[in-house]
Amino acid sequence: MPFPLNDLGTALTAQIYQTVMGGDGNVKPDDDTFFTWVTPGLPFSAEDLDFCSQGIFSAPDAETQNKRVLHAYNLAQLLDFIPDVSMAYSNDKQEGMYKPDAEKHLSEIYRQILRFSKVVDHPLTEEEQAKLDRLRGKLFETKMVKNLATDVEEEKTVPSALMNAYNEHMTKYLDATTQYNSKRAAAAGATGPEGKQASADWILNQQNYFLRVKAAADAWVTGGYRNEVDDINAFINQTTQRSLKLWKQSLLERYDQAFISTPEIGVAFPYTTLVPGDLANSGGWTQIGVTHNHTQWAKDNTETSWKAGGGLNFGLFSFDANGGRKSSSYTETHAVEEFSMSFELCQALVVRAGFYPEFFANRGWILRKGEGWMFDQMPSDGARPPTGEFIGYATQAIFVRNVQIKSKEFRSAYHKTASEVEAGGGVGWGPFRLSGSYKRSDQHEDFDSTDDGETLGVNGMQIIGFVNHLLDKAPNPLDELDDAEFV
């Protein structure tokens, strides 16, 4: 019998969501997370992320250094967004859509929050201030780096060795939980003869997969200094609730120090990177697959945390803004007799050198409308879903690669649609980009699919979504603080 493409897409996103977010008794999703889908995906080559693994200033020559800083600029611009819950859609999950043309940039709104916030002023003792400075120095350190535009050396703030170890082991923990959730989701949705292997794998190996999660969690504690870093952050938060003036000033300074510039663009930007930096060659990729037999499982899977409205239609192919088309003959009613899809998935941590989200958890600051803060709303009302000018931020980028689709009808629909797209326009299905050229700064790349008569293949890397952290109410000053205590 024919299977609607929209049902297949629902099954696919349900499996990706459970793989990334979890949802059983051993690996649970965080109530303060929100998943953002990208439609169509954002293509990346291994070279685009060279600075993440090799750094910028370790380049062997000026040409390579300039190219790496341009790649850093491109990534920073793509990740400088605030999640938009108004674009959420209703499959009963904490999900929404990525808006690359959003009016609000994370770095600028964060700067304005820091700049115009009023903070409580209860001066610390000399001993408390010294301990605070010492602990902050364990998390981040300053280095002298040369400005590419002026050749002047400047101080820049970067994660310390302690934080690098923390992030590295957290990434390994996420890899282990991703594998665990992927195996569980595949077994839960397994049907028919082709599903026996996934079911048997979970029945026999669930404990082994869980032990990998436990081992990664233990390694994060012992080798990644998880408890130590969490304790340091807890002390900073507790101590600075009494006097935030110096802390706020240091955050503003570190924000400014995290900016670098590129000769090609001539505009300073907030340095942003990914962990693992060498994700294109890392072993943290998880195999995902879906067939037409998964559709009923997706319909029956109703586990929720909070609901949002809207709609993402997997029956329709998606297009770039510049990929105008004459018409589309394929709508949500289009169906296929046979369909199977596989790809590899990897989660990468987003690291922003000048961004300190612990400020939002602190309860010793306020914003006053008209006193620098000129927005209609406060940063976040803390509701689920929240409203506000700064409701959260991306913590992970979800990459996929080696997309393989086997379906005669799907291939025919894709080729028909692609033939009606203007030259250079991108074509996607749900969060997956299937083809099209893309441009970043002065770079122009082609992102093409192949068709061997049986399988439509898309081998390049692409970001299909982001995991975001949602803020609680911010600002949310302690009840016992008087308005006069804020300066």
How would you characterize the overall build of this protein?
The structure is a single chain. The protein has 487 residues and is α+β, with helices and mostly antiparallel strands. The chain has one domain (3-485). 35% of the residues lie in helices and 24% in strands. The chain contains 12 helices and 21 strands. Strands 2, 3, 9, 10, 13, 15, 19, 20 and 21 form a 9-stranded mixed sheet that branches. Strands 11-16-17-18 form a 4-stranded antiparallel sheet, with helices on one face. Strand 5 (140-146) and strand 6 form a beta hairpin. Helix 5 packs antiparallel against helix 8 and helix 6 (161-188) runs antiparallel to helix 7 (196-222). The longest helix is centred in the middle third of the chain and has 28 residues, at 161-188.
Compact description:
This protein is α+β, with helices and mostly antiparallel strands and 487 residues long. Helix content is 35%, strand content 24%.
